[in-house]
Write a structure and sequence with these properties.
mainly alpha
Amino acid sequence: MKYSRAQIAEWAIDGFVTLASVLLVLRVAFELVAADRNATFIHWVYVVSTTLMTPFREVFAVNAPAIGHPLDVAALFAIVAYLVGGYVFHGIRGWATRLARR
C-alpha cells in the first residue's frame, strides 16, 4: 500500500511529539522520585531530554529547581509547547492538503 506524503508527514509529527513528550514526562517523574542520575537508563533520559529542552532554557531556570521543590517547570512547559506545536503543525498540514485538492 502506498502512503501519501501528507500521511508520512503526519506520522513523523506524531512520532516526534509522542517521543519528546514521553521522554520529558519520564524526566519529570524521575526528578519527583529523586531517581539516581547515574543509572544508565535514567542518565540517557536526562541527556536526551536536555537536548529537547534546549529551546526553553531561557524561559525557566532548567538546571536549578528550587530547594525542596523537585518539580521541573521548564520540562512541563516543554511538554505543553511540543504538544501545542504538534497540534499547530497538524493544522497546517490539513490546511495545505485542502488547498492542494482544490
